[in-house]
Design brief:
Radius of gyration: 15 Å
Number of helices: 3
Strand content: under 5%
Structural class: mainly alpha
Order of helices and strands: HHEEH
Helix content: 55-70%
Oligomer: single chain
Strand order of the largest sheet: 1-2
């Protein structure tokens, strides 16, 4: 079973549910997607170095095997989920203070 893949898809689904519930509107903002692109570039550099040099090794039994460079696609999904959750919560709690 591809647990890493299932967990990453679950995290993505959960992020969209949280966004629907909290209504931060971040997915409509161009600045959010630019922010995400900048993070992806640095992820490619740092994580690409770590996985390319076999410092970090993924067990192929747990993910699809689809990679961008040397990085499993699931890492990008988890990264998107973590960054999105942080921004959603930031926007949500920031709105309540205003």
């Amino acid at each position: 079973m591809k647990e890493y893949t299932l967990l990453s898809i679950f995290s993505l689904f959960l992020i969209f549910l949280i966004e629907v519930r909290l209504k931060s509107g971040i997915f409509k903002l161009k600045i959010f997607w630019l922010f995400l692109l900048i993070i992806a570039v640095f992820k490619l550099l740092v994580n690409g170095y770590l996985t390319g040099r076999n410092i970090v090794i993924y067990n192929p039994n747990f993910f699809l095997g689809i990679r961008l460079g040397s990085i499993p696609i699931e890492d990008f999904i988890f990264g998107f989920s973590m960054v999105s959750l942080t921004v959603i919560l930031w926007e949500h709690f920031n709105k309540e203070k205003i």
